[in-house]
Backbone:
């Protein structure tokens, strides 16, 4: 079971580019660095990182050179200019990663658990429309209760 997303692919592009700006990196190094910086709370999949590295190369923001059987990614002057133009946004994302709000993280985990519980119970209730309607009613009530806060 995967955890909730820390940020969308658009924001991920800035963070990955910043990591490469700090020092040339392999894709695996980027995955491990993001995991470390998030305190172990987030590990992007290779399926998220490697296409993003290809996109950054296509945009001219990084160069990929062969390093054994891996690719080493280095920032280009265009990538540095892009980061400089977006410095405030990049810094905000990095600050959020470095200092996750404990309450917000707990809330994110609770939402993730709720989602999976609802999905699993709906699958298990495949041929019982009344149970699926009970799940819907519980979720609607949760939304109403939260909105009433």
Residues:
């Amino acid at each position: 079971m995967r955890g909730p997303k820390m940020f969308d692919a658009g924001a991920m592009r800035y963070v990955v580019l910043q990591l490469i700006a700090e020092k040339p990196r392999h894709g695996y190094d980027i995955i491990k660095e993001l995991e470390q910086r998030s305190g172990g709370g987030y590990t992007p999949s290779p399926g998220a990182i490697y296409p993003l590295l290809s996109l950054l190369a296509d945009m001219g923001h990084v160069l990929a050179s062969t390093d054994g059987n891996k690719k080493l990614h280095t920032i280009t002057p265009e990538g540095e200019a892009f980061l400089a133009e977006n410095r405030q946004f990049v810094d905000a994302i990095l600050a959020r990663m470095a200092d996750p709000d404990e309450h917000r993280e707990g809330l994110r985990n609770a939402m993730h658990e709720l989602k999976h519980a609802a999905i699993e119970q709906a699958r298990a209730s495949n041929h019982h429309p009344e149970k699926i309607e009970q799940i819907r009613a519980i979720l609607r009530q949760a939304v109403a209760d939260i909105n009433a806060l």
User: Anything to note?
Assistant: The chain has seven helices and two strands.
